[in-house]
Structures are given as structure tokens and as C-alpha cells.
UniProtKB/TrEMBL annotation:
Name of this protein: 3-hydroxyacyl-[acyl-carrier-protein] dehydratase FabZ
Family: Belongs to the thioester dehydratase family. FabZ subfamily.
Entry EC no(s): 4.2.1.59
GO BP, sorted A to Z: fatty acid biosynthetic process; lipid A biosynthetic process
Function (record text): Involved in unsaturated fatty acids biosynthesis. Catalyzes the dehydration of short chain beta-hydroxyacyl-ACPs and long chain saturated and unsaturated beta-hydroxyacyl-ACPs.
Keywords: Cytoplasm, Lipid A biosynthesis, Lipid biosynthesis, Lipid metabolism, Lyase
GO cellular component: cytoplasm; membrane
Active-site residues, record numbering mapped to chain: 55
Catalytic activity of the protein: a (3R)-hydroxyacyl-[ACP] = a (2E)-enoyl-[ACP] + H2O
Record organism: Duganella flavida
A GO MF term: (3R)-hydroxyacyl-[acyl-carrier-protein] dehydratase activity
Subcellular location: Cytoplasm
Length: 162
């Protein structure tokens, strides 16, 4: 009989893997993950978010680009856990592509954005993921994301395969 350990990450552990800080740290908690496969994380969206001051004052909506960024941060956590690697201050995760992004419903104050990310492949240093963000079980955003992990000193060089 096998038991599956429910692996989680609190905000302190998340901050040890991601260089992002307020206002751009967009993952509050990891609910579960399985190295090499999937991760589920949440972003609690509050009216106090900086972006709501201008997007839009009369009807606050989380910008789509920030929903994509939140899913990418979730994907980066999965990649680091999969590689059993803790990034140093010289590690940077870059987008190399976003395909099929679709925004299905607005996300606003009081919502909890649940991000489910699955690794589709990792080849030549390029990670590809399927990412879906939901609110109350309804799809809010979905996309295929491609990222690479680079040294900040190599950041001006093209990504592998380019």
C-alpha cells in the first residue's frame, strides 16, 4: 500500500524559491505539488492590490498579464522543486513563449485564483507547461507557458534553441 504525501509550501518557502516581492509576488500558497508533474497554488486577490488603483477604479479587474504572471511563478516553483534546486540571487526565470492564452472571466477583489500547472515537457532548457486559473471552479484564464531558467550573467544571451 502506497501513501501519497500532500506536499505544500507556505509563503516563507515560496519566497525562498522566487525572487519576486511585493507587489509582484503573486503566489500566496502552494496547496499541493508532485515533482515532474503538477502543482496547485492560490493567489488571494484583495482590494488592496496596487493594480486596482488604475485597473479599473470603477470596476476593479485583475489584469490578464498578472494572471499569466501568477501562473508562471507557480510553474517556476514546480520546475525548481522538480530539479531539486534552490535558486541563488543570480538565477532568473524568463518567459520564452505564451501560447493559446484565453481569458474566460474577470478576476476581482475577494476572489481566490486557483492555479493548476502541469509540465508538458522539458527539452534543451525550455520548460513547457499547461496552466489553468480558476475562481470558484470556473475557468478564468488558461495558457501554455514556456520558460527557461538562466543565470543573470547569461541573461543577455538568447535562450537555448533560439
Amino acid at each position: 500500500m502506497t501513501t501519497t504525501e500532500n506536499k505544500t509550501m507556505d509563503i516563507c518557502e515560496i519566497k525562498s524559491y522566487l525572487p519576486h516581492r511585493y507587489p509582484l509576488l503573486l503566489v500566496d500558497r502552494v496547496i499541493s505539488y508532485e515533482e515532474g508533474k503538477t502543482i496547485t497554488a492560490i493567489k488571494n486577490v484583495t482590494v488592496n492590490e496596487e493594480f486596482f488603483n488604475g485597473h479599473f477604479p470603477h470596476k476593479p479587474v485583475m489584469p490578464g498579464v498578472l494572471m499569466i504572471e501568477a501562473m508562471a511563478q507557480t510553474a517556476a516553483l514546480l520546475s525548481f522543486k522538480t530539479m531539486n534546486l534552490k535558486p541563488d540571487e543570480n538565477s532568473v526565470v524568463y518567459f520564452v513563449g505564451i501560447d493559446g492564452a484565453r481569458f474566460k472571466r474577470p478576476v476581482g477583489p475577494g476572489d481566490q485564483l486557483r492555479m493548476d500547472v502541469e509540465i508538458l515537457r522539458n527539452a534543451r532548457g525550455i520548460w513547457k507547461y499547461k496552466a489553468v486559473g480558476t475562481v470558484d471552479g470556473q475557468v478564468a484564464v488558461e495558457a501554455e507557458l514556456m520558460c527557461t531558467i538562466r543565470s543573470a550573467t547569461d541573461a543577455s544571451q538568447p535562450a537555448a534553441g533560439q
